[in-house]
Write a structure and sequence with these properties.
It is a single chain. This protein is of the alpha/beta class. It folds into two domains: about 55 residues, no CATH class; about 230 residues, Alkaline Phosphatase, subunit A (3-Layer(aba) Sandwich). Helices cover about 30% and strands about 10% of the residues. It contains nine helices and twelve strands. An eight-stranded mixed sheet has the order 7-4-8-1-9-10-2-11.
Length: about 375
């Protein structure tokens, strides 16, 4: 009976009026005894009754808020423990080191010697180039005149106007004599061991057209006087194969060997890279500097104006000089991103080829792999 009477009174006390909490009073100071602490005597019952009566005069316990604080502290405790675990793991594993780059992933450019089979050439993943990436590049080649014989003489008004608005490479040099090995150097990065203008020849090494094709890009060579698409003869009228290096590479599709009459008037239809080769009458070989200058203005003047506003580039260079000026040749760069003015950086045909490869994000090959691209003429 006593136990029943005590528990009943205690329960009624607990269910009594809810007191209001006073500021600064801790929750544990007025919580009623836990049900497991049952008094064994009347003195215990008095103590419990006094505690309950005191609790009636105190403010209510905001237990919901208390539970939120406990949850928050619990979560912060877990975060601290996780941070400590990570710290300990880092201490045990020692200082972080970057993994060594394997030789297979080395960015070094392979050099393929003349006569070797061309390995697949594709874009270089992750490469960063100092050369702008152009949508179209046109390279025109004239013949056998030195820098001083072409520019600033009053005989080449069109080329002089391009030199005034574009960049002039004042230290540009051919790589050898006579003509044919220079064309090969500009197209394939090698003279292929050739020391004359003989014809025909067939080479299996890497070249610009094959590199572009392997990378999903496009190339076309336009030769004035070429009698038919894909023609492989050594000459026809004023056309000569020795100035048309892509014909010497059987891996290059015959359809990429086009006459100049196929050069599009809609320049958006141009391939990524084009070579333009005037015939012997219009390339300064048999004709005059003035005649060649007029031909270039007629066939490339419109493209030169268009290129500047359409992320495209025109390069006009010579294969070699007249053998009297240390092979010093004129080279003019006109188009988008070009900083007008002279550039005194020394360049040659391999450097021009390397510049084209860099712009199209292609792996350099042969002598172009060790040449430095032209980087001093770009405005952005």
């Amino acid at each position: 009976m006593f136990r029943y009477s005590y528990l009943g009174k205690l329960d009624r006390c607990r269910r009594g009026s809810t007191p209001t909490r006073r500021p600064g009073v801790e929750e544990s100071a007025f919580l009623p005894p836990t049900p497991t602490a049952r008094p064994a005597s009347s003195s215990a019952w008095g103590t419990a009754r006094e505690t309950c009566q005191r609790a009636e005069k105190r403010p209510p316990v905001r237990r919901r808020c208390g539970r939120q604080w406990r949850v928050l502290l619990f979560r912060r405790g877990r975060a601290v423990l996780a941070a400590l675990a990570l710290l300990l793991a880092g201490c045990q594993s020692g200082p972080h080191r970057h993994p060594a780059r394997s030789s297979a992933a080395s960015p070094q450019s392979p050099v393929v010697t003349a006569g070797q089979s061309a390995s697949p050439l594709s874009t270089r993943p992750g490469a960063v180039s100092a050369v702008p990436q152009f949508d179209h590049i046109v390279v025109a080649v004239v013949e056998n005149h030195s820098y001083g014989e072409v520019l600033g003489t009053g005989r080449s008004r069109f080329l002089d106007s391009l030199a005034a608005t574009g960049a002039v490479l004042t230290e540009s040099y051919a790589v050898t004599h006579p003509s044919e090995p220079n064309y090969l150097a500009l197209f394939s990065g090698s003279t292929q061991g050739l020391s004359d203008d003989s014809c025909p020849h067939s080479y299996g090494g890497p070249n610009l057209a094959s590199a572009l094709t392997a990378a999903g890009k496009t190339f076309t060579g336009y030769s004035e006087g070429l009698p038919s698409v894909g023609f492989t003869g050594c000459g026809s009228g004023a056309y000569v194969r020795k100035h048309n290096p892509w014909v010497d590479f059987p891996a290059v599709a015959s359809g990429l060997n086009q006459p100049m009459t196929s050069f599009p008037s809609d320049f958006t239809r141009l391939p990524n890279v084009s070579f333009v080769i005037p015939n012997l009458d219009n390339d300064m070989h048999d004709g005059s500097v003035r005649q060649s200058d007029q031909w270039l203005q007629t066939h490339l003047g419109g493209y030169a104006r268009w290129a500047s506003t359409h992320n495209s580039l025109l390069i006009i260079t010579a294969d070699e000089d007249d053998r009297g000026h240390n092979n010093h040749i004129p080279t003019i760069v006109v188009g988008a991103h070009v900083k007008a003015g002279p550039s005194s950086a020394r360049v040659d045909h391999y450097a021009v080829l390397r510049t084209i490869l860099e712009s199209l994000d292609l792996q350099p090959f042969e002598q172009a792999a060790t040449a430095q691209p032209v980087t001093t003429v770009w405005s952005s």
